[in-house]
Write a structure and sequence with these properties.
245 residues; alpha/beta; Rossmann fold; 6 strands; 15% strand
């Protein structure tokens, strides 16, 4: 098992020993943490070519996606596309990004993450929560697409343990803290928060003065500066279950 997963499991077991009668909760962000959002970017750009009869992205592959999914202009930088065409592509991309069809077809989890989530859910008195910067109005689509990625009869994610952003996009950090607060007010003992955005983890660290919540950084594609990560944050990007017992 790699370092960040080892740290997470060891911390979980310590919390389990310390709070044997409490409901323990491991909290995950969604985009860039559970879901590999490069697939969304790639699929939408390929779809742009299909819909518009162009061949701008013929040679684009998954490894070529290195920019955050919300930074449309950055995704197209260095492609040689004219300003006018880039504007049209970004406008079309943004109009399709949260379409239900896109979410169902392009939202793909990182290897191993769903198995990790299920492992926690199979432990006694242990639960998995979602704390996302996605807008509250995407709740139904989010649950539908996430549970479809698992492709089993029993939903792995539930409405009760999904906290979404009721603020605007500029207040994601505040929303993340509110999510942690709501879970605690619902009598969950929070084990860890896993997120790919350093600023979200920084906000939770500032709020959690006791330092009981373990912070894990999904080192994938993110917008914020890495140096915002709080001291003690453990980073990784491979959900390796080898050695978990």
């Amino acid at each position: 098992m790699n370092l960040w997963m080892t740290c997470l499991i060891q911390h979980y077991k310590r919390m389990k020993d310390r709070w044997p009668d409490d409901r323990l909760l491991v909290v995950f962000d969604i985009d860039g943490t559970i879901l590999d959002t490069r697939h969304v970017v790639l699929d939408l750009l390929k779809s742009y070519d299909e819909v518009h009869g162009t061949n701008v992205f013929n040679n684009l592959g998954l490894v070529d996606i290195t920019t955050h999914e919300d930074q449309g202009e950055g995704i197209l930088s260095g492609t040689g596309i004219s300003i006018n065409e880039a504007t049209n592509i970004v406008r079309w991309y943004e109009s399709q990004q949260w379409d239900l069809h896109t979410m169902l077809e392009s939202h793909k989890p990182f290897s191993g993450v769903m198995e990790l989530i299920q492992w926690f859910q199979h432990q006694d008195n242990t639960y998995v929560g979602l704390n996302t910067g996605r807008s509250e109005n995407l709740r139904d689509e989010t649950l539908c697409s996430l549970n479809r990625t698992w492709e089993e009869a029993t939903p792995i994610f539930t409405n009760e343990l999904l906290f979404m952003n009721s603020f605007d996009w500029g207040q994601v950090e505040q929303s993340k803290v509110s999510g942690i607060q709501q879970f605690q007010e619902s009598n969950y003992k929070i084990v860890a928060m896993i997120d790919n955005e350093p600023s979200n983890l920084a906000a939770i660290s500032h709020w959690d003065s006791a330092g009981e919540i373990m912070l894990l950084h999904a080192d994938t594609i993110f917008k914020g500066a890495r140096d915002l990560l709080p001291t003690g944050t453990v980073s990784g990007n491979v959900y390796d279950l080898t050695g978990i017992s």
